[in-house]
Amino acid sequence: MHTFRRWVTATVTVVAVTALGGCGLLGGSDDNAGGNDKVEKATVKVGIIPQLLDIAGFERARSAGYFGAAGLQVELVTIKSATEAVPKLKTGELDFAFGNWSSFIAAQSEGAADLRAVADGLQAKPGMTALVAMPQSPITSAKDLPGKSVGVNALVGNVTLTSKAVVKAAGADPGRVQFKVIPTADALNALKTGQIDVMSLQEPNLTMAKQKLGAKVVADRATGPVADFSISGYVAPAAFVKNNPKTTAAFAGAMAKGQGDLADQQLVRKTLQDYAKLDPGVAQAVGTGVFPTAVEGARLQKVADLMLTYGDLKKKFDVGPMLYQAPAS
């Protein structure tokens, strides 16, 4: 399989490119924007997949002015996936990028990029991501999935990886499950019209499926072998981190504050409602997950180990060199 096909994102909604404003008034608008008394580079370009639950910490940091206070002006660049982000990070079109960890780990392990994990995004917890079926479906658990079709956003990536783990944990053979790529924008319709038997969904789509279709949960994708699974985060090129230590530390620090604020579940829902333009009823019902304030090597290693188990990596991979080390203060 060609290398780039392994950088598959496990994310959900993809929207059209929109003009999104940054925060703060420091720094210029071009690629060679200078620094200030706080950072080497005041204007940073950040690749973001809009409207996801995963980016709530980033959006909180923006709305609360944490980036501006750290000396940064954030210029958003809309991307569709971590796959798209990797080459843009290599060429300097992006300074930081959001995406799912399995995609970034695959790119790093195959030598497609040299990345540093500078901030966490979303950690799964029960109730926020699941395999669902229509209410009249005879499928009631993961044991029923062999021989059935399961809609996923990509054949290689976080969604399929965790789905396989859940099926195996239920005592069934994940190799007999028919995984079928369904664009997230089409997920609810594909489920409703019977194009697939089961759909893998994450919030806020999970709540929308329950409310609009009466969908039932067949298996939670955040339990057993994938409990506390690290879903997504933010990376930067190793060279950028080395050459811009203050800038990287400022970004990581602002992200940590934004993530930390989201220990308040109502603030998560309010933030999500504001940037994703959700119906208040959906925003109040979503399962919100966990927003870690730092990247933990043990959790990231768990992702790499699971990727090896299901063939997404060719050999065991040590995530240690990917972990960002903040400069000594």
From TrEMBL:
Localization per record: Periplasm
Any single Pfam family the record assigns to this protein: NMT1
Cross-referenced InterPro entries: SsuA/THI5
Official protein name in the record: ABC transporter substrate-binding protein
Record keyword Signal present: yes
The organism's taxonomic lineage, starting at the top: Bacteria, Bacillati, Actinomycetota, Actinomycetes, Pseudonocardiales
Record key words, sorted: Signal
Protein's organism: Amycolatopsis heterodermiae
Boundaries of every SsuA/THI5-like domain copy: 55-263
Similarity comment text for this entry: Belongs to the bacterial solute-binding protein SsuA/TauA family.
